């Protein structure tokens, strides 16, 4: 009891009730410490008494005795130290367990007693002591347990630390442990280059990101400070200081160059001075390289972090963006934001410093020119002053042309919609119309790009004229002004240095302009209205809601109180605001007035199921812990168990994006199962039973939603069109035009005799019959065989295979390996055409010839003898010099324009090929290819082909020809330099091939790891409301972070590779400068100052030229990867041709609408079971045929076969006696019509959605809308037919979208109409109206209906009953019922007989 009072009583249970028994902390610090102490204190008095009577003489102090005393005192002091530590550091821990403080005090006092006993025994002459031996033995034994516990704790801590370290640093980045020299020379990177050269790099070879570069760290820093500049200020300063050091090294470098030329001219100067100047130039060249590349490395690191930050912020924003903002900013635009826009921000970080640094460099160069040429330098200054505003003007004009970004956004947004709605495009044969829309955007984008490139070329022209202006003014103002070698070549070296900041400045200004536009773009996105987050029992008091701040209210005067644990049904016509009411409860709408509270956690089932590209299990569990028994009961209740039998890997089967390989009903049931599994407090169910068969719906209602279902104690708000469920609801809300017109229980509403009771009386008969299924029968109608479409069921031989492999559907983006094949370059140049390539090469050769002549002419001028203090024919020399300079300027302008145009021609062709390849691909291609892979091709890769490849070629060709010129000049001056140049070039070639293997593979890995980011963004934006409702944002943010970090692991080594190459190559290049300088010093007796000056000023450029050639070549090779990736889809399987030239159909085909199947067989893939087996049947003119059957019967396969979405494996289908396999796909699909199960709309006007080819008049469109019961709705819209539909038609309700699909069919009015469960999302009254419209308007057409509600086909001419790919029954409904076959039992099950 004493101990329990001092210790935590619960602590004692840990010893007994545990799988790993151990003594508790309290026991270890009390009993085990006290036991030897109590023994000593209790026995000490008796021992002292014993010693008193047994005296054996005194023993002198020995070293052993001293050691014992010291040890005892140490142990006593340790006890005191422990007590002080506990009081100071652990006071909170021991507040309720004072026993821990008592132990060290007792131990210390006991040790002092032991020391006293030792000395007492010595005094009494006792040589061995059993009393103390027993004490020490007890003390050691009792200390072993705490010692073991302490060792265990230390081992655990060390192992945890090691595990954490290893998990974080599976492959740590070597820069962390690199030495100073290794860091500044980037030698730490060499290991990866060697590995990449030996074998192609894979993602596993890459280093893990440094902690400071991870999304988690960067974004937490950013959220803490919310200012990018603030967070990165320190790094900016470090990079600026490196850049300024670069400028200082240039300054000293020029001085030494001038001194060297002075030395060559002065024959009496001692040789050692020449060598000193040569080595000084070499040293300064090396320093310049070091500073420059450390600066670039710092900039790229900051740029990478900016990219991570922007991606992270955009993702977080896309999770909280409101529906109103979502309509103005689509998935395509968000993808563009994280691809092209982040790249522009990164360029800005790298080149921004040039905006303020270039003027400093220009100022320094002009100062030195003034020193050499005096006031004549003003002419150069005047030229530069003229260039500045010209560059500013050009940059301003180019920034106006950045509307290219707007067109690119539009194109990506449209591509995203095309990929989302590709099935509808194929059903309606609308590919051409949408292709034209994409190409319209593309043409505008390329037009803006072309103008921008021409303006850039104009800015390159005036640089050549600076030297002409300065030398011209210098020799003309005074004939005594002599141009000697020192003046000419130091000035030329300065002018060459001047060209760099002058060329950088327009580029820096352009990137700054682009970055400001990008920032505006991002700010606009971030300022999009975010959702508030609040949440307490579903109560809305006098609420008015709208979709946007400024928009009209969609819900008015809403007052609802939902008691805990009740079932509330929401009913009403299409567009009456039922889904909006749920959105308001979720907080997705803008609250204008009133109050809303929702209690506890929420689970939401949207009307259109949102399914992730993950396994069935992951979709249901949705981030929660998997509890097997609960999971199985959820699957059973949601009627998903029979589906698992169809799926090849059961619940480990991968489901395609947006549930591509599931039917509408399966998607809804998975969506419902996800909500049920969550065990939330409140369930918001938006018509989850519309897409399932009546008796499956009844099963789900009984087992899940209803009063006896597994959610019976939860609060449920159910939007429904099923009248049979209403009697079991506790409260019914009747909605019309955004208001709750009636509310009450079922009996209350019926007794009121209102519109609701009339409506129920009219439709209850049909509805009740349709859905009163036999409760005892098993639910075996699941509805679709589509799962088989892309997945193979397990055969015996495959049973052992890993389930994940069997269930895999989508293919991840794969990286090619090795160097880019030559065929890619051939492909690229072929698209440009020889007609443009030959002039480009000729222009470059002409430009370099003009440049060589220009420089050589200067050398001749500098060596011209001086007679009477003047040089002869100065005006002629100046005229020739000016003409050569002008020719060079024209050639530079010509080459820049020609390459830009060539690049635009190539990118136009490549984009067109990509678009054609994608649009001509069959449906199976879209099911196995994630949309992120395709969007990546259309955004980032096309952007690289537009801009990066032409720029790379421009740079590379320019420098290759420049290198030729330099080599010629250096060899003319000092032929011995050839001994240095040749091995250097061979070494460069070796390093380049060594490096390109690594660099190219890194570029591929970076491209491949980018696709999953887009796929994830795409999926998140579409399912944002579900993710928010389930509160899963943190999990999705973690996934996004890991994908961005994975991408950065290949991006980081990519830019370090460039720095590694440049530093090492420039050191080699600097050796050439040294060689040229030393050879000039050695041969000063034979060389003229002019040729030395020419050789030196050119050899100084070699370093830069060679590294730029390698860098440009690598850039080209890296970016040609984009061509490779765009061309990838040229070899994938394609559909049959859209039109056949030799096969023209009559314009009125099909005239009668007869359909004939002759032994028609269909397989989803070779080797799979037949989906349709030798079907032979004929549908007569104007016949109305219903198609019914259980799961896997082949109902949908029949529709897919008629539209040739799947090609026949055997047999034929004839329409009006024409074999459909022998006509073009577009000819076939445009002449027949389908109203599909999933109503898809595209962003654009309502009219475009009805008639993308503009083939019908406005009157015809209005007539179709009237017949589809949409005329009142559309005429009430402010823009009528021009009403802008948002992406996916999200600003219309699902029912309205289905009516738009009906209007499309009414507008096309073809002789054959296929309905695939087309009225699932509409209320019964509208369904009746639609059925009557179909009967009257399509009276003279052939109608095939894939039916789930059997009552809709009871008046059809014939019904086809299918089972396992065969037609088992076919007759009129009455005859089939009389025959008591399969159809009879289906009708009986549905309560129709």
TrEMBL record:
Domain ABC transmembrane type-1: residue ranges: 263-514, 840-1118
Record family assignment: Belongs to the ABC transporter superfamily. ABCC family. Conjugate transporter (TC 3.A.1.208) subfamily.
Organism for this UniProt entry: Pygocentrus nattereri
Positions of transmembrane segments: 31-50, 70-88, 100-118, 130-149, 242-264, 270-291, 348-370, 376-394, 454-477, 828-846, 878-906, 963-988, 1060-1079
Record field: catalytic activity: leukotriene C4(in) + ATP + H2O = leukotriene C4(out) + ADP + phosphate + H(+)
GO cellular component: endomembrane system; membrane
The protein's name in its UniProt record: ABC-type glutathione-S-conjugate transporter
UniProt xrefs under InterPro entries: AAA+_ATPase, ABC1_TM_dom, ABC1_TM_sf, ABC_transporter-like_ATP-bd, ABC_transporter-like_CS, ABC_transporter_C-like, P-loop_NTPase, TMD0_ABC
EC id: 7.6.2.3
Alphabetical keyword list: ATP-binding, Membrane, Nucleotide-binding, Repeat, Translocase, Transmembrane, Transmembrane helix, Transport
CDD domains: ABC_6TM_MRP1_2_3_6_D1_like, ABC_6TM_MRP1_2_3_6_D2_like, ABCC_MRP_domain1, ABCC_MRP_domain2
SUPFAM superfamilies (UniProt xref): ABC transporter transmembrane region (SSF90123), P-loop containing nucleoside triphosphate hydrolases (SSF52540)
Keyword Lipid metabolism attributed: no
Enzyme class: translocase
GO molecular function: ABC-type glutathione S-conjugate transporter activity; ATP binding; ATP hydrolysis activity
Annotated ranges, domain ABC transporter: 538-762, 1157-1389
Topology versus the membrane: Multi-pass membrane protein
One Pfam family here: TMD0_ABC
Domain of life (superkingdom): Eukaryota
Subcellular localization: Endomembrane system
């Amino acid at each position: 009891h004493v101990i329990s009072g001092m210790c935590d009583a619960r602590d004692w249970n840990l010893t007994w009730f545990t799988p790993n028994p151990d003594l508790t902390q309290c026991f270890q610090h009390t009993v085990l410490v006290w036991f030897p102490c109590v023994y000593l204190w209790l026995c000490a008095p008796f021992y002292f008494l014993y010693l008193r009577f047994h005296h054996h003489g005194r023993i002198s102090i020995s070293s052993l005795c001293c050691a014992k005393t010291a040890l005892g005192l140490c142990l006593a002091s340790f006890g005191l130290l422990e007590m002080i530590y506990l009081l100071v550091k652990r006071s909170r821990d021991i507040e309720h367990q004072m026993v821990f403080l008592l132990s060290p005090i007792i131990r210390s006092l006991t040790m002092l007693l032991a020391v006293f006993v030792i000395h007492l025994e010595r005094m009494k002459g006792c040589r061995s002591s059993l009393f103390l031996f027993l004490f020490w033995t007890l003390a050691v034994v009792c200390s072993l347990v705490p010692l073991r516990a302490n060792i265990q704790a230390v081992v655990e801590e060390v192992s945890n630390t090691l595990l954490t370290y290893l998990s974080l640093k599976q492959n740590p980045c070597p820069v962390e442990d690199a030495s100073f020299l290794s860091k500044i020379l980037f030698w730490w990177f060499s290991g990866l280059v060697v590995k990449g050269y030996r074998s192609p790099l894979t993602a596993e070879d890459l280093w893990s990101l440094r902690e400071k570069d991870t999304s988690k760290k960067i974004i937490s820093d950013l959220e803490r400070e919310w200012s990018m500049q603030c967070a990165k200020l320190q790094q900016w300063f470090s990079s600026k200081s490196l850049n300024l050091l670069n400028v200082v090294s240039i300054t000293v470098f020029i001085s030494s160059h001038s001194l060297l030329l002075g030395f060559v001219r002065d024959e009496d100067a001692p040789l050692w001075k020449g060598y000193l100047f040569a080595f000084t130039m070499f040293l300064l060249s090396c320093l310049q390289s070091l500073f420059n590349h450390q600066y670039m490395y710092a900039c790229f690191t900051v740029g990478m972090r900016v990219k991570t930050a922007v991606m992270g912020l955009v993702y977080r924003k896309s999770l909280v963006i409101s529906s109103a903002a979502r309509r103005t900013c689509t998935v395509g635009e968000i993808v563009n934001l994280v691809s092209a826009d982040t790249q522009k921000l990164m360029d800005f970080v790298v080149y921004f410093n040039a905006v303020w640094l270039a003027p400093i460099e220009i100022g320094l160069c002009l100062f030195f020119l003034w020193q050499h040429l005096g006031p004549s330098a003003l002419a150069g200054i005047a030229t530069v002053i003229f260039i500045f505003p010209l560059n500013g003007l050009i940059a301003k004009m180019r920034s106006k042309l950045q509307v290219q970004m707007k067109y690119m956004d539009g194109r990506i947004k449209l591509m995203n919609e095309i990929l989302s709605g590709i099935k509808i495009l194929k059903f309606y044969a609308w590919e051409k119309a949408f292709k034209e829309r994409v190409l319209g955007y593309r043409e505008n984008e390329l037009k803006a790009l072309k103008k921008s490139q021409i303006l850039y070329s104009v800015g390159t022209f005036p640089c050549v004229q600076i030297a002409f202006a300065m030398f011209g003014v210098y020799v003309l103002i005074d004939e005594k002004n002599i141009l000697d070698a020192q003046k000419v070549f130091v000035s030329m070296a300065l002018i060459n240095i001047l060209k760099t900041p002058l060329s950088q400045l327009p580029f820096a200004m352009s990137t700054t302009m682009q970055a400001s536009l990008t920032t505006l773009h991002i700010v606009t996105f971030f300022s999009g209205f975010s959702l508030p987050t609040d949440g307490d029992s579903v109560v809305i008091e006098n609420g008015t809601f709208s979709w946007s701040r400024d928009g009209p209210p969609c819900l008015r005067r809403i007052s609802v109180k939902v008691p805990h644990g009740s079932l509330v049904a929401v009913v009403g016509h299409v567009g009456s605001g039922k889904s909006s009411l749920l959105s308001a409860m979720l907080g997705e709408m803008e609250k204008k007035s009133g109050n809303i509270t929702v209690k506890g956690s929420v689970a939401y089932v949207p009307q259109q199921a949102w399914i992730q590209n993950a396994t069935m299990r992951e979709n249901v569990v949705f981030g929660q812990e998997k509890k097997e028994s609960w999971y199985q009961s959820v699957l059973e209740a949601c009627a998903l168990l029979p589906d698992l039998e169809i799926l090849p890997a059961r619940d480990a089967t991968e489901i395609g994006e947006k549930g591509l390989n599931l039917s509408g009903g399966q998607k809804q049931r998975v969506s419902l199962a996800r909500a049920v599994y969550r065990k939330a407090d409140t369930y918001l169910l938006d018509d989850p039973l519309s897409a399932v068969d009546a008796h499956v719906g009844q099963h789900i209602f009984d087992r899940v939603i209803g009063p006896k279902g597994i959610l019976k104690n939860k609060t449920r708000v159910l939007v429904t069109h099923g009248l049979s469920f209403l009697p079991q609801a506790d409260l019914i809300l009747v909605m019309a035009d955004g208001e709750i017109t009636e509310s009450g229980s079922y009996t209350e509403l019926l007794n009121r005799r209102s519109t609701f009771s009339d409506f129920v009386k009219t439709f209850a008969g049909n509805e009740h019959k349709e859905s009163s299924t036999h409760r005892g029968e098993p639910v075996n109608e699941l509805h679709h065989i589509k799962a088989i479409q892309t997945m193979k069921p397990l055969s015996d031989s495959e049973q052992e295979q890993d389930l994940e492999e069997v269930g895999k559907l989508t293919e991840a983006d794969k990286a090619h390996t090795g160097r880019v094949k030559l065929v890619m370059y051939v492909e690229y140049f072929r698209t440009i055409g020889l007609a443009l390539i030959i002039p480009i090469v000729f222009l470059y050769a002409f430009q370099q010839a003009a440049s060589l002549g220009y420089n050589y002419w200067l050398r001749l001028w500098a060596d011209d003898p001086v007679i009477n203090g003047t040089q002869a024919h100065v005006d002629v020399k100046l005229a020739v010099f000016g003409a050569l300079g002008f020719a060079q300027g024209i050639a530079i302008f010509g080459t820049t324009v020609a390459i830009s145009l060539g690049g635009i021609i190539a990118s136009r062709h490549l984009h067109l090929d990509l678009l054609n390849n994608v649009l001509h691909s069959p449906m199976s291609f879209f099911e196995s290819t994630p949309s992120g892979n395709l969007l990546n091709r259309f955004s980032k890769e096309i952007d690289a082909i537009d801009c990066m490849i032409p720029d790379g070629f421009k740079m590379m060709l320019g420098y290759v020809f420049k290198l030729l010129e330099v080599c010629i000049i250096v060899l003319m001056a000092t032929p011995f330099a050839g001994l240095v140049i040749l091995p250097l070039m061979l070494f460069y070639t070796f390093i380049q091939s060594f490096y390109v293997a690594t660099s190219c593979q890194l570029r591929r890995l970076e491209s491949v790891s980018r696709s999953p980011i887009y796929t994830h963004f795409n999926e998140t934006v579409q399912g944002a409301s579900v993710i928010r409702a389930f509160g899963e944002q943190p999990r999705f943010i973690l996934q996004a972070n890991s994908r961005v970090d994975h991408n950065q692991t290949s991006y980081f080594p990519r830019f370090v590779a460039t720095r590694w190459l440049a530093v090492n190559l420039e050191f080699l290049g600097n050796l050439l400068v040294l060689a040229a300088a030393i050879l000039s010093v050695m041969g000063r007796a034979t060389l003229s100052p002019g040729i030395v000056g020419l050789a030196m000023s050119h050899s100084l450029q070699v370093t830069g030229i060679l590294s730029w050639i390698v860098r440009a070549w690598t850039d080209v090779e890296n970016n040609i990867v984009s061509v490779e990736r765009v061309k990838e889809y040229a070899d994938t399987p394609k559909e049959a041709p859209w039109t056949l030239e030799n096969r023209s159909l009559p314009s009125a085909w099909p005239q009668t609408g007869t359909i004939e199947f002759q032994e028609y067989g269909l397989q989803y893939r070779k080797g799979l079971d037949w989906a349709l087996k030798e079907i032979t049947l004929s549908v007569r003119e104007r016949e109305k045929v219903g198609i019914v059957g259980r799961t896997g019967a082949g109902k949908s396969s029949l529709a897919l076969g008629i539209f040739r979405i799947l090609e026949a494996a055997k047999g034929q289908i004839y329409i009006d006696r024409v074999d459909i396999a022998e006509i073009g796909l577009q000819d076939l699909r445009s002449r027949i019509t389908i109203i599909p199960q999933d109503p898809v709309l595209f962003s654009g006007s309502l009219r475009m959605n009805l008639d993308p080819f503009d083939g019908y008049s406005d009157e015809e469109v209005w007539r179709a809308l009237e017949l589809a019961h949409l005329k009142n709705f559309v005429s009430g819209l402010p823009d009528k037919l021009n009403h802008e539909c948002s992406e996916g038609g999200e600003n219309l309700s699902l029912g309205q979208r289905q009516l738009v699909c009906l209007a499309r069919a009414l507008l096309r009015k073809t002789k054959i109409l296929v309905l695939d469960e087309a009225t699932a999302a509409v209320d019964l009254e509208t369904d009746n109206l639609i059925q009557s419209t179909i009967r009257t308007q399509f009276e003279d057409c052939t109608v095939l209906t894939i039916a789930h509600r059997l009552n809709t086909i009871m008046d059809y001419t014939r019904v086809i009953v299918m089972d396992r790919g065969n037609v088992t029954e076919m007759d009129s409904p009455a005859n089939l019922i009389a025959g008591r076959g399969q159809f009879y039992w289906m009708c009986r099950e549905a309560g129709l007989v």
